[in-house]
Write a structure and sequence with these properties.
The complex is a heterodimer of chains A (about 325) and B (about 170). Chain A is mostly helical. Chain A folds into 2 domains: about 20-65, no CATH class; about 70-335, no CATH class. Chain A has helices spanning about 1-40, 55-65, 75-95, 110-120, 120-130, 135-165, 170-175, 195-215, 225-230, 240-265, 280-300, 310-335; strands at about 100, 105. In chain A, strand 1 and strand 2 form a beta hairpin. The longest helix of chain A has about 35 residues, at about 1-40. Chain B has helices at about 5-25, 30-50, 50-75, 90-110, 130-135, 140-160. The termini of chain B are far apart. The chains are: A mainly alpha (about 325), B mainly alpha (about 170). At the A-B interface, helix 1, helix 4, helix 5 and helix 6 of A face helix 2 and helix 3 of B.
Chain lengths: ~325, ~170
């Protein structure tokens, strides 16, 4: 009885893991393809035949065979632990995402709050890895990452909060359910971004902040290859490094899916009752999330990297005051209309 | 044993084990990372008490905020992060006395309080009532806390920015 329930729990918990793994394999290939097309070349073309679709599998096999190097003066235990904590943090957050109208890991009443709380473990794991490597670049990267994530948590939370004010619930399933239907202007879907002009500003702030939270260009200072030699990952090799990569891509997907739930109606079909249902819901949810991931990749190959002081200036002097002002305006709008 | 019981013992073990490690560790960075597991274990115990909001707040504030600040403090003050400072045992006798006193008080409370076991049921909503209370009954304390935090932020800013009365030199 008890073993059965534990097994059932594990099976249930495996579903997001499988989604993440399949997504990561193709997102890495996709990222290289996007990079290729933006830079007017083809990207990986050889492995697997059609446009090199099996490139990630080849990379994975290569990474598995690589030697697992731990620097001589590194803190061996923390060095080994850091990648797992990082992946566990982003994986745990998938529990509260409503993948479709009939699948959600845990229908928590405080869903989005749990998500924001558990992802704060990410910066701890980055510090852990950076410190344990016993390398100057790694420590610099870790410090930058922690400062960046702590700072950008404020605008992220403020923009999420402005959505919560409109939706009136922290439960992501409820937030999604209240966005179903096509009543805006008669035919547009009831997505929150179309309901309130200030929520568009909130989405822009949210998107900029999640770029910084997920360490994406133009805010990838913690790993900037040219100055810090990949920052906190410098000393990692083989599968441990792959674990960091996986966690990073999982974090990207997580934050994009969160954006899809909060602003673009989650699993709701854009055509009302047409193409709606649990399976279609999963399709729409992933499509919206992956589109946001694609925009992140697109930005990566379009914009140059910020400087540290510019990064902090942008956060504390522009985004945070703007997000607070926007929050007040959204609350006023909700009171009046 | 139900799943909840097993989970309770797991979280209790995690909390106590990491707390012990934290206290006895010679390496201060290890102690800080051990504290993370202690805080997570306590958060897990909160969840088992159906206080999920407190658990998430615990993780957000203590792990995501205070622990990072502690780590920052350690890493910015140690000179060369390999030879970092070791923790020492000082004031052994007064420390033991204080610990004994504190544990005696706790044991007294534990023994003397009338324990009743309440059958636990998951509340339908955890934060709606809390929000109502905060915004209606406890509005004033809530606002005063906000004001206190604002004053603390201003104070921290004042201390951090060194106000120099000399005119700035052009570089």
């Amino acid at each position: 009885m008890i073993t059965e329930s534990i097994l059932l729990l594990l099976l249930f918990a495996l579903i997001p893991l499988i989604i993440i793994l399949i997504y990561a394999l193709f997102a890495i290939w996709g990222e290289r393809k996007v990079a290729g097309f933006i830079q007017d070349r083809l990207g990986p073309m050889r492995v697997g035949g059609w446009h090199g679709w099996a490139q990630s599998f080849a990379d994975l096999l290569k990474l598995i065979q690589k030697e697992d190097i731990i620097p001589a003066n590194a803190d061996r235990f923390l060095f080994r632990l850091a990648p797992f904590i990082m992946f566990a943090a982003s994986y745990a957050a998938f529990a509260v995402l409503p993948f479709s109208s009939s699948f959600i890991g845990s229908n928590l009443d405080i869903g989005v709050f749990f998500l924001l709380a558990i992802t704060s473990l990410l910066s701890i794991s980055v510090i852990m890895g950076g410190w344990a490597s016993n390398n100057k670049w790694s420590l610099f990267g870790a410090m930058r990452s922690a400062a960046q994530m702590v700072s950008y948590e404020v605008p992220t939370i403020m923009s999420v909060l402005s959505v919560i004010v409109v939706a009136g619930s922290l439960n992501l399933m409820t937030v999604t359910e209240m966005q179903s239907g096509n009543d805006t202007l008669g035919f547009l879907p009831n997505w929150l971004i179309l309901q309130n002009p200030f929520l568009i500003i909130a989405f822009v702030i949210f998107f900029i902040s999640i770029l910084a939270e997920a360490h994406r260009v133009p805010f990838d200072l913690p790993e900037s290859e040219s100055e810090l030699v990949a920052g906190f990952q410098t000393e990692y090799s083989g599968m441990r490094w792959a674990m960091f990569m996986l966690a990073e891509y999982a974090d990207m997907l997580l934050l994009s899916l969160l954006g899809a739930v909060l602003f673009f109606g989650g699993w709701n079909s854009p055509f009302g009752d047409f193409m709606a249902g649990p399976a279609w819901g999963f399709f729409w949810f992933m499509l919206k999330g992956l589109l946001l991931v694609f925009v992140m990749m697109w930005i990566r190959w379009t914009l140059p990297r910020y400087r540290v002081d510019q990064l902090m200036y942008l956060c504390w002097s522009i985004l945070i005051p703007l997000s607070f002002l926007n929050f007040v305006l959204i609350a006023l709008w909700e009171m009046i209309f | 044993m139900s799943l909840t019981t097993i989970l309770f013992y797991l979280f209790a073990l995690l909390t106590l084990g990491s707390a012990t490690f934290m206290v006895f560790s010679r390496n201060i960075v290890h102690a800080a990372f051990a504290m993370m597991f202690t805080l997570l274990g306590v958060a897990g115990l909160y969840v088992l008490l159906y206080a999920d909001f407190i658990a998430a707040t615990q993780i957000l504030v203590y792990v995501g905020g205070i622990l990072i600040l502690i780590l920052f403090g350690i890493m910015l003050t140690t000179q060369g992060f390999t030879s970092g400072f070791k923790t020492l045992t000082v004031n052994l006798v007064p420390g033991i006395g204080l610990a004994l006193l504190a544990s005696a008080g706790l044991i007294y409370v534990f023994v003397s309080s009338p324990w009743t076991s309440v059958s636990m049921e998951a509340p339908k909503t955890t934060i709606t009532e809390m929000g109502m209370l905060l915004m209606h009954e406890y509005m004033l304390p809530f606002q005063v806390t906000g004001l206190l935090l604002l004053v603390a932020i201003i104070g921290a800013l004042l201390m951090a920015t060194k106000i120099s009365h000399k005119p700035k030199k052009d570089s």
